[in-house]
Amino acid sequence: MYELAFPLLVALILVALAFDYLNGLHDAANAIATVVATRLLSPVQAVIFAAFFNFAAYFVTIAFPALHAVAETIGKGLIDKDLVTPAVVFGALIGAMFWNVVTWLKGIPSSSSHALIGGLIGAGMAHAGLTGIQWGGLSKTLIAIVLSPLLGMILAMLVMLVSSWGLRRATARGAERGLKLLHLISSGAYSLAHGLNDAQKTMGIITVLLYSTGYLSGEFEVPHWVAIACYAAIALGTMTGGWRIIETMGTRITKLSQHQGFSASLAGSIVLFTASALGIPVSTTHTITGAVIGAGTARRASAVRWGVAQNVVVAWIITIPASAAVGALFYLLTRLF
User: Fold this and answer.
1) Which residues pair with residue 310 across a beta bridge?
2) Torsion region of 59: left, alpha or beta (phi above 0 gives left; psi -120 to 50 gives alpha)
3) Which is nearest to 293 in space by CA: 276, 275, 308?
4) Backbone angles phi, psi at 129, to 5 degrees
5) What is the predicted pLDDT for the residue at 236?
6) Which of 180, 242, 204 minimizes the C-alpha distance to 81?
7) Residues 6+ apart with CB under 8 A from 192
8) Phi–psi pair at 278, nearest 5 degrees
9) Three-state SS for 6?
10) For 228-261, how does the pLDDT look when each residue is reduced to its tens digit (9 = 90+)?
């Protein structure tokens, strides 16, 4: 157990919630890009819609507590929870926030989740070396980096195929009206899944901080006040929006129809709900980007701007090492001061 004055504990929790807010700000595009790009909702309506479902995820976890497994993976599945110190938490958060701000300013839809994972790994290694890494949890997360966008892409193509067959006898007007409703429902489901998976990453950080400083006794589980605070912070961040990233996600990768928007949102929500149930902290950004590409490819491969998609993939590859380096640097700075 590591001693930490209560005011410093409060300050670190506020930094964690600031990251959660920034996560929602950065990842607003994930939840609303398709409904904004297709003009199903106005930007203001879309962010309020997404923020509502981000927070509503809290009530889903009350009914299904097992869905909070992602918080446990972040809190004790990547770095040995007994080796996590307040300095490690600080380094992880600053590393993740730094990378989020850089990619937000550049309009690049990188992963807030993997920025946090990179920051945690970097700060943890700077503190305890390779021995502190939980290789099973890290391997599961790294595999998900590859699988989540691929699964999103494949599922979006399948949804496009099945729904096209199901609507084959509908009139153009009837099909469009039905797809608008389905798109709205699937977008709500995706926003719910986005809040569920992403808010838990900050919950895991705060919970392991409380555990390591002796403020959490008994079993390692997320206190209710931590869950409510994290869902509220990510919802507020989503309401603020990241408009430059929304442009990249909704229009620059491929031009979306209502049909494609519905298919991408539904595919993304399936992947995220499954990952949350399995306790895997996947990237909501990777998932929806893969789904958008799949929906575009289902129409025709040339509909996807592969140059833009390639730039997004490059950002994915460097996110973990870049945020890990910054996380390690800020951990070492705490040792100096």
Assistant:
1) none
2) alpha
3) 308
4) 75, -165
5) 92
6) 204
7) 53, 54, 56, 57, 60, 269
8) -90, -5
9) helix
10) 999 999 999 888 865 554 554 444 545 678 898 8
Task: Name the token pair of 66.
Answer: 């097992």
Say if CB 229 and CB 19 are below 8 A apart. no
Q: How many CB atoms lie within 10 A of CB 9?
A: 16
The 3-state secondary structure of the chain, one letter per residue: CCCCCHHHHHHHHHHHHHHHHHHHHHHHHHHHHHHHHCCCCCHHHHHHHHHHHHHHHHHHHHHCHHHHHHHHHHHHCCECHHHCCHHHHHHHHHHHHHHHHHHHHHCCCCCHHHHHHHHHHHHHHHHHHHHHECHHHHHHHHHHHHHHHHHHHHHHHHHHHHHHHHCCCCCHHHHHHHHHHHHHHHHHHHHHHHHHHHHHHHHHHHHHHHHHCCCCCCCCCCCHHHHHHHHHHHHHHHHHCCHHHHHHHHHHCCCCCHHHHHHHHHHHHHHHHHHHHHCCCCCHHHHHHHHHHHHHHHHCHHHCCHHHHHHHHHHHHHHHHHHHHHHHHHHHHHHHC
Give me the residues of the chain with pLDDT under 50, please. 245, 248-251, 253, 303
Q: Which two tokens stand for residue 309?
A: 């998609």
Please answer whether residues 192 and 178 qualify as being in contact, where contact means their C-beta atoms are separated by less than 8 angstroms: no
Question: What pairs with residue 133 in β-bridges?
Answer: 79
Residue type, 231: Y
SS3 of 223, please? coil
- At residue 210, the pLDDT reads 94
Q: How far apart are CA 272 and CA 288, in angstroms?
A: 9
